[in-house]
């Protein structure tokens, strides 16, 4: 077929009409995918909110897509009149992961039925804050209000236990009393010390000497004196060498003059 006739064929992929049709189909598919994603996010948010409230999960919209043999098997075994849960693929999920998740959710729903609650309290309180456990807080507050004597008795016992000396750390069965129970005991530091360290005073004196500013000043002055003495010795050594060199030169000139 001549090449100049190829562009006039309706089945040519590079035909202007076909390219425009492909662009329209791609745009429509993108819009449909965006709407489907929005619906999926809305359904997921409703399901999470129902789980937090402890209510029955809302029915999911029907999905007519074929997701594999596992989906067909679960749909076949599900009793009549029941609705499937969320059957859309998640982001980054392939067919195998999707089928495993569907089978796992189906098994979990069969083992543990939905929890139903009679609570119809709003999720937003009067201040405009989200409160998922308002009814529980109200019931616990009412229970505390019904038993004020028990609360006061509990606090009184707790305060009484804290005021008493604790002997839980003492050895069980020991007849020796703690040192703080003896009123006539000598409270001097030497008496409370069971074993006196013979080198304790030496370490304490050394620590005080090391931390004394006067010690640092004396050490600095000693180093300065040593530095000055070393420089003075070096200066004298240089002067002696210079004198010896001058004397050697003078003796050499005198010897040449006699010749």
From TrEMBL:
Residues annotated as domain CBF1-interacting co-repressor CIR N-terminal: 10-46
Bias-annotated ranges (Basic and acidic residues): 74-83, 90-108, 134-164, 219-259
Superkingdom assignment: Eukaryota
InterPro entries for the chain: CIR_N_dom, LENG1-like
Positions of the UniProt region annotated as Disordered: 52-259
Listed PANTHER family: LEUKOCYTE RECEPTOR CLUSTER LRC MEMBER 1 (PTHR22093), LEUKOCYTE RECEPTOR CLUSTER MEMBER 1 (PTHR22093:SF0)
Name of the featured protein: Homocitrate synthase
Species of origin: Ophiocordyceps camponoti-floridani
């Amino acid at each position: 077929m001549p090449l100049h006739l190829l562009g006039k064929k309706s089945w040519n992929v590079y035909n202007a009409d076909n390219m425009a049709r492909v662009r329209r189909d791609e745009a429509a598919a993108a819009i449909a995918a965006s709407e489907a994603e929005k619906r999926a996010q809305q359904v997921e948010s409703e399901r999470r909110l129902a789980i937090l409230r402890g209510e029955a999960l809302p029915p999911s919209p029907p999905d007519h897509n074929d997701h594999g043999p596992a989906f067909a098997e679960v749909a076949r075994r599900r009793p009549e009149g029941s609705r499937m849960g969320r059957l859309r693929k998640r982001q980054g999920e392939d067919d195998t992961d999707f089928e495993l998740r569907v089978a796992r959710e189906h098994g979990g729903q069969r083992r543990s039925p939905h929890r139903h609650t009679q609570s119809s309290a709003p999720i937003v309180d009067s201040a405009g804050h989200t409160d998922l456990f308002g009814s529980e807080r109200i019931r616990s507050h009412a229970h505390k209000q019904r038993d004020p004597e028990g609360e006061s008795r509990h606090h009184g016992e707790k305060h009484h236990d804290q005021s008493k000396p604790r002997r839980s750390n003492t050895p069980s069965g020991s007849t020796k009393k703690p040192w703080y129970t003896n009123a006539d005991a000598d409270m001097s530091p030497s008496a409370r010390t069971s074993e006196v360290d013979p080198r304790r005073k030496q370490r304490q004196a050394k620590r005080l000497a090391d931390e004394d500013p006067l010690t640092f000043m004396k050490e600095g002055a000693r180093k300065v004196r040593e530095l000055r003495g070393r420089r003075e010795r070096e200066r004298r050594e240089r002067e002696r060498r210079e004198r010896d060199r001058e004397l050697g030169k003078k003796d050499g000139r005198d010897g040449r003059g006699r010749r």
